[in-house]
Write a structure and sequence with these properties.
This protein has helices spanning 3-14, 18-37, 83-89, 98-107, and strands at residues 42-44, 48-55, 58-61, 68-71, 74-81. The protein is α+β, with helices and mostly antiparallel strands. The protein has a domain at 1-40.
């Protein structure tokens, strides 16, 4: 789904004009970008966390000259999905209640004990 399709669908579901939905989305993205630039972390409960991650310096190869080079350390934006969003994608939680479910988890620790998706452990094995 592209931005225009997203805006149309959201406008339809919220009964807000597309122009207003577009302004809100642009404002939200701009705000997240500014906060990340300032070094802050942005947490949207029920959705996920945006943060700046540090990528270490590493060795590489210039594909044109085949010369070994050092790629300098850099910072890059990153996103980590919340458990609520993960469960929704897996079909274990109703997608329409993401924010409500996340708020309930924050208030009641027993609600948060819904089965979490299994995290892979160790290295992936090559499939032959």
């Amino acid at each position: 789904m592209h931005k225009n399709e997203f805006i149309k669908q959201l406008a339809k579901e919220t009964t807000l004009p597309q122009k207003e939905v577009n302004q809100v989305i642009k404002g939200a993205v701009d705000l997240i970008a500014r906060r990340l630039k300032d070094g802050d972390k942005v947490v949207i409960t029920g959705f996920g966390t945006f943060e700046v991650r540090r990528r270490r310096a590493r060795r590489g190869v210039n594909p044109k000259t085949k010369e070994r080079i050092t790629i300098p350390e850099t910072q890059t934006p990153g996103f980590t999905a919340s458990n609520t969003l993960k469960l929704s994608v897996l079909g274990q939680l109703e997608a329409t209640n993401l924010m409500d479910q996340a708020e309930a988890e924050a208030e009641d620790p027993e609600v948060a004990s819904i089965a979490k998706p299994a995290r892979p452990r160790g290295r992936k094995k090559a499939v032959v």
